[in-house]
Amino acid sequence: MKIWTSEHVFDHPWETVTTAAMQKYPNPMNPSVVGVDVLDRHVDPSGKLHSHRLLSTEWGLPSIVKSISFTNMVSVDERLTYKPHPQNPEKTVLTQEAIISVKGVSLSSYLEGLMASTISSNASKGREAMEWVIHKLNAEIEELAASARGGMRTPLVAAALAEK
Protein backbone atom coordinates (compact mmCIF):
# COMPACT_ATOMS: atom_id res chain seq x y z
CA MET A 1 0.00 0.00 0.00
CA LYS A 2 1.24 3.49 -0.88
CA ILE A 3 -0.20 6.76 0.45
CA TRP A 4 0.10 9.96 -1.59
CA THR A 5 -0.89 13.40 -0.23
CA SER A 6 -0.93 16.95 -1.54
CA GLU A 7 -2.22 20.38 -0.52
CA HIS A 8 -3.15 23.30 -2.77
CA VAL A 9 -4.67 26.75 -2.15
CA PHE A 10 -7.22 28.07 -4.64
CA ASP A 11 -7.61 31.87 -4.91
CA HIS A 12 -11.39 31.49 -4.83
CA PRO A 13 -13.95 31.24 -2.00
CA TRP A 14 -15.06 27.81 -0.76
CA GLU A 15 -18.54 28.12 -2.33
CA THR A 16 -17.04 28.71 -5.79
CA VAL A 17 -14.50 25.89 -5.52
CA THR A 18 -17.00 23.31 -4.26
CA THR A 19 -19.50 24.26 -6.98
CA ALA A 20 -16.75 23.74 -9.57
CA ALA A 21 -15.74 20.42 -7.96
CA MET A 22 -19.24 19.04 -8.54
CA GLN A 23 -19.05 20.08 -12.21
CA LYS A 24 -15.39 19.18 -12.85
CA TYR A 25 -16.01 16.43 -15.41
CA PRO A 26 -15.94 16.37 -18.36
CA ASN A 27 -13.10 18.81 -18.99
CA PRO A 28 -10.34 19.08 -21.60
CA MET A 29 -7.52 18.62 -19.06
CA ASN A 30 -8.67 15.13 -17.99
CA PRO A 31 -9.95 13.42 -21.16
CA SER A 32 -9.41 9.98 -19.64
CA VAL A 33 -12.42 10.50 -17.33
CA VAL A 34 -15.39 9.41 -19.42
CA GLY A 35 -18.08 9.24 -16.74
CA VAL A 36 -18.94 10.10 -13.14
CA ASP A 37 -21.55 8.32 -11.04
CA VAL A 38 -22.63 9.67 -7.66
CA LEU A 39 -22.90 6.66 -5.36
CA ASP A 40 -23.82 8.63 -2.24
CA ARG A 41 -24.13 12.29 -1.28
CA HIS A 42 -25.22 13.51 2.13
CA VAL A 43 -24.68 16.21 4.73
CA ASP A 44 -23.63 14.87 8.10
CA PRO A 45 -24.92 16.28 11.44
CA SER A 46 -21.93 18.66 11.66
CA GLY A 47 -22.84 20.20 8.27
CA LYS A 48 -20.10 18.53 6.19
CA LEU A 49 -20.99 17.50 2.65
CA HIS A 50 -19.87 13.99 1.74
CA SER A 51 -19.93 12.91 -1.90
CA HIS A 52 -18.89 9.38 -2.86
CA ARG A 53 -18.34 9.26 -6.62
CA LEU A 54 -17.14 6.58 -9.00
CA LEU A 55 -15.09 7.84 -11.94
CA SER A 56 -15.01 5.76 -15.11
CA THR A 57 -11.77 6.18 -17.02
CA GLU A 58 -10.31 5.14 -20.35
CA TRP A 59 -6.52 5.18 -20.21
CA GLY A 60 -5.80 4.02 -23.76
CA LEU A 61 -3.80 1.04 -22.58
CA PRO A 62 -2.34 -1.33 -25.17
CA SER A 63 -4.58 -4.33 -25.90
CA ILE A 64 -2.07 -6.76 -24.36
CA VAL A 65 -2.31 -4.92 -21.03
CA LYS A 66 -6.12 -4.86 -21.25
CA SER A 67 -6.18 -8.59 -21.86
CA ILE A 68 -4.21 -9.19 -18.64
CA SER A 69 -6.82 -7.07 -16.77
CA PHE A 70 -5.46 -5.55 -13.59
CA THR A 71 -8.91 -4.37 -12.46
CA ASN A 72 -9.12 -6.90 -9.61
CA MET A 73 -5.56 -6.18 -8.51
CA VAL A 74 -5.46 -2.38 -8.39
CA SER A 75 -7.36 -0.18 -5.96
CA VAL A 76 -7.13 3.60 -5.60
CA ASP A 77 -9.16 5.31 -2.90
CA GLU A 78 -8.86 9.08 -3.28
CA ARG A 79 -10.17 11.62 -0.78
CA LEU A 80 -10.39 15.34 -1.55
CA THR A 81 -11.20 17.80 1.23
CA TYR A 82 -12.07 21.44 0.52
CA LYS A 83 -11.94 23.87 3.47
CA PRO A 84 -12.12 27.65 3.65
CA HIS A 85 -8.63 29.07 4.17
CA PRO A 86 -8.20 29.76 7.91
CA GLN A 87 -6.81 33.28 7.39
CA ASN A 88 -8.52 34.34 4.15
CA PRO A 89 -12.17 33.53 3.37
CA GLU A 90 -11.56 34.39 -0.31
CA LYS A 91 -9.31 31.31 -0.61
CA THR A 92 -9.90 27.56 -0.32
CA VAL A 93 -7.51 24.83 0.83
CA LEU A 94 -7.66 21.51 -1.04
CA THR A 95 -6.13 18.50 0.66
CA GLN A 96 -5.81 15.37 -1.47
CA GLU A 97 -5.00 11.87 -0.29
CA ALA A 98 -4.82 8.69 -2.36
CA ILE A 99 -4.36 5.20 -0.97
CA ILE A 100 -2.99 2.92 -3.69
CA SER A 101 -2.99 -0.86 -3.38
CA VAL A 102 -1.70 -3.39 -5.92
CA LYS A 103 -2.32 -7.01 -4.99
CA GLY A 104 -1.49 -10.37 -6.47
CA VAL A 105 1.54 -9.44 -8.56
CA SER A 106 5.24 -9.29 -7.89
CA LEU A 107 6.66 -5.76 -8.03
CA SER A 108 3.50 -4.45 -6.33
CA SER A 109 5.54 -1.84 -4.42
CA TYR A 110 7.09 -0.63 -7.68
CA LEU A 111 3.67 -0.44 -9.39
CA GLU A 112 2.19 1.44 -6.41
CA GLY A 113 5.02 3.98 -6.66
CA LEU A 114 4.46 4.32 -10.39
CA MET A 115 0.76 4.93 -9.83
CA ALA A 116 1.54 7.50 -7.11
CA SER A 117 3.72 9.40 -9.62
CA THR A 118 0.90 9.30 -12.16
CA ILE A 119 -1.59 10.56 -9.57
CA SER A 120 0.80 13.37 -8.65
CA SER A 121 1.10 14.58 -12.25
CA ASN A 122 -2.65 14.18 -12.80
CA ALA A 123 -3.35 16.23 -9.66
CA SER A 124 -1.89 19.33 -11.31
CA LYS A 125 -4.14 18.67 -14.34
CA GLY A 126 -7.07 18.36 -11.94
CA ARG A 127 -6.29 21.73 -10.35
CA GLU A 128 -5.98 23.24 -13.83
CA ALA A 129 -9.37 21.72 -14.67
CA MET A 130 -10.88 23.29 -11.54
CA GLU A 131 -9.64 26.71 -12.65
CA TRP A 132 -11.12 26.05 -16.11
CA VAL A 133 -14.51 25.14 -14.59
CA ILE A 134 -14.44 28.18 -12.28
CA HIS A 135 -13.65 30.44 -15.25
CA LYS A 136 -16.50 28.83 -17.20
CA LEU A 137 -18.94 29.28 -14.28
CA ASN A 138 -17.91 32.93 -13.82
CA ALA A 139 -18.38 33.56 -17.56
CA GLU A 140 -21.87 32.02 -17.41
CA ILE A 141 -22.76 34.20 -14.40
CA GLU A 142 -21.50 37.32 -16.19
CA GLU A 143 -23.46 36.39 -19.31
CA LEU A 144 -26.65 35.89 -17.29
CA ALA A 145 -26.10 39.18 -15.45
CA ALA A 146 -25.50 41.04 -18.72
CA SER A 147 -28.58 39.44 -20.23
CA ALA A 148 -30.66 40.46 -17.22
CA ARG A 149 -29.32 44.01 -17.35
CA GLY A 150 -30.00 44.16 -21.09
CA GLY A 151 -33.53 42.85 -20.57
CA MET A 152 -34.24 45.47 -17.91
CA ARG A 153 -33.01 48.33 -20.11
CA THR A 154 -35.07 47.37 -23.14
CA PRO A 155 -38.37 48.92 -21.92
CA LEU A 156 -36.56 52.11 -20.84
CA VAL A 157 -34.78 52.41 -24.18
CA ALA A 158 -38.06 51.77 -26.02
CA ALA A 159 -39.82 54.44 -23.95
CA ALA A 160 -37.01 56.95 -24.56
CA LEU A 161 -37.14 56.28 -28.30
CA ALA A 162 -40.94 56.63 -28.30
CA GLU A 163 -40.69 60.08 -26.71
CA LYS A 164 -38.47 61.40 -29.53
From TrEMBL:
Lineage: Eukaryota, Metazoa, Chordata, Craniata, Vertebrata
InterPro entries given in the database record: PRELI/MSF1_dom, Slowmo/Ups
Pfam families assigned to the protein according to its UniProt record, in alphabetical order: PRELI
Name of the protein described by the UniProt record: PRELI domain containing 3B
Cross-referenced PANTHER family: MSF1/PX19 RELATED
Domain PRELI/MSF1 positions: 1-164
Source species of the chain: Phyllostomus discolor (pale spear-nosed bat)
One cellular-component annotation, GO: mitochondrial intermembrane space
